[in-house]
Amino acid sequence: MPKAPPAKELAHQLPPLGAIAEETTIVVKGIHQTDIHGDLQSSGGAWFSNEDLRNLSVRVPEHLASQNAGELTAMLESINSTPQHNMLKITGLSKKNIKNFTVDLCKKETLNWESTPDATLIKVIVAKLRQRSGLTMIQEWNKTLTENKNAEELAKASLLKNKYDVIATDIERPFDSTGLQISQGSQKIFYQSIRKFNGVHKQRRQTIATLALTQHTISGINGATPSPQQVWVAIRDRNIPCTIRGFLWKNLHRGYKIREFWSLIPNYEQRSNVVCAERLNP
If DSSP codes are grouped into helix, strand and coil, which group holds residue 28? Predict the structure, then answer.
């Protein structure tokens, strides 16, 4: 079996004879929210120009949904709809994703993108970019662009779709750089890779329900829905006293012996009835 090229080696694809390279500018936007069942929903939109048939909206499948999956899927589908020899300018990516495609690319590829969110989508996009002969430029989200609203409207419209879009994540063999270099790894990365290889660990139903309730509550307060990762990181903030951090952690896992905990224990069912005592004003 032929060996895949190193991560730093770019593919050189020649444009068709007589083809004229055009400059294509795309604005991408991704949004995410939590539905009534506590599941994360992601969508993306890509805006080319007015009345352009390539304008697209994508509803991300559940297994790929994340905070940044919307903009990544919009970027992937817009790359697929653009000739490989055209000069491509993509605007609207987050700082984190721009670093993944530029300064952190070689390092994370040698580690097989372990511990990197949206690794599946990023690997496919990198492979698609290497197949292009035209120059590709990526820029951060620019609030001053008037096209931002158009891309955002496309992303919102995709959430109304009845079905998820099919996102192809297969990578052609010559451009697949899958593999973890032992010389670049650490004990932590190896351990995470082994756990990932052995299978997905079951999540506690009560933890998932409490986490979804927390996300909905925060969304109602500030208008933005945090990701599960953001919630877990927030309760570990070192500015919060250790005792309160422990209290929040146990609350998210429903670790305290209150309410429904007693409902299934014989002769102690009455303890599940919470009685709120009113405070008497003097």
Answer: strand
